[in-house]
Design brief:
Length: about 500
Amino acid sequence: MSVNWTGDEELHHFYEVLETIGNGGFAKVKLGRHRLTGEKVAIKIMDKKQLGEDLPRVKLEIEAMKNLSHQHVCRMYQVIETTAKICLVLEYCSGGELFDYIIAKECLTEMETRVFFRQIISALAYVHSRGYAHRDLKPENLLIDDNHNLKLIDFGLCGKPKGGMQCRLNTCCGSPAYAAPEVILGKSYIGSSADVWSLGVVLYALLCGYLPFDDENCMALYKLIEMMQVEPQDRLTVSELLDHPWVTKDFNIPVEWHSKQQMGNIDADCITEMSIALKRSRETTTQLVKETLRFSEDDDSTGSLELISDNDSCTCRTHGLKYARLTTPTEKNKPKTPNGSACKAPMEISLDLAFSPERRSRSLDLAGVRDSGQKKKAAKVFGSLERGLDKVIAMLTPTKRWRPQDGPRKIKGQYNVTRTSQTNPDQVLNQLFTILSEKEVDFTQNGYSLKCRCPTSLSPVGMVFKLEVCLLQKTEMVGIRRKRLKGESWFYRHLMGDILASFRE
Ligand SMILES: Nc1ncnc2c1ncn2[C@@H]1O[C@H](COP(=O)(O)OP(=O)(O)OP(=O)(O)O)[C@@H](O)[C@H]1O
């Protein structure tokens, strides 16, 4: 017997939706917990209305992610469509963005860079082997997981040339600082070569801690990076990179780029948990999963696959989704026993979007701002109104300099935490108030946590970040934890440098 849930019910039935962990130009990303297994997931939530003309970008992202399964590519577990929203349930990467990691460490050692770089080229070689060019490779789109491994995210701008990777692409897209010259010049280009250029910029940022083109002295190093040759045909290819002497130094073996996660691989832990939830033997459950996989491989349409059970029956239903990524998120160490109501093992949920051919072929702006002019204008007006309102609220709120009743959180010193030489959290909080006011950064306070917004005069695209005063475990010294929620990464880097400079030990 199947259950006809709405997307909202579906989402909340399977997942506990927790705090926001990231914001992109198109999405809000929330931490989620799979109710059955306890596994943490990232839920990328996009508002259909707000997406407007960018809806095809989401379709592209879903299509790509369902065709990719690799140890260094973020996995997509499920797609849930609600009336107003599209939610992608993704593998959770707890370590944050590689970008924040670089700026926290200022730059990485050659050896650490090599370890990360090998993972990036492994992911990229795999993505190219599946016929996709990523086209938005940058440290903000590389996340760090629990095991300190990188995962590539954000396939919304990827391209899949119809005739294969040697065919040229025309869409001018990506992030200007990382885009290859031929892309910037609006020429047709080979997607994999354009990715190699971006790879060069990423390598540069890893080693130096800042972007090329910022400083004249950097040009010498930049010229030495063989990936950043202006002429695409002079550039190294990803396959040449895999066994390049710099890449293999100290490893003595070329990068292994083949996927260690087979497409449609049936996870044993997953079968165990599903068979408990479905009240079926492992054999029956495996059989059901295999049947559904076979079905979905034959089918080319989008749709979904579900295994549904109530207490009396168990049905295997598919909406024809080709991507049978049969991995219900599993908690590796300690699976939770499902409660009585959690009898439906989630797989893919149907996504039936109508995309007009005109929309499909529309190119995205290179300018990095993907909004239409009208939208930008509206955002500006709303931005200034909102800021004005924030200021009034700030002035009228006497709690601003209150001593919060609950003490600060105790946390481990992580790369996104600046250690101070102080032991009094209230003093640090007050010092932060002063600095933020001096810099005209608006903020709202919640205990020891400040949600900050930059004036549009400083950061036209809007910069939102969190600062939290906390106590560092063991030492009891005060730390300031930072998190970028929205806005341009390199601007954020400079701003954090300014705000936190006076606190550093
Ligand atoms: N799987 C994940 N695990 C943890 N955090 C994530 C995950 N996916 C995304 N995030 C966080 O959310 C942010 C926004 O996600 P993402 O880049 O996918 O959104 P977007 O709207 O497509 O962004 P953009 O404007 O760059 O295109 C990321 O930069 C990251 O900080």
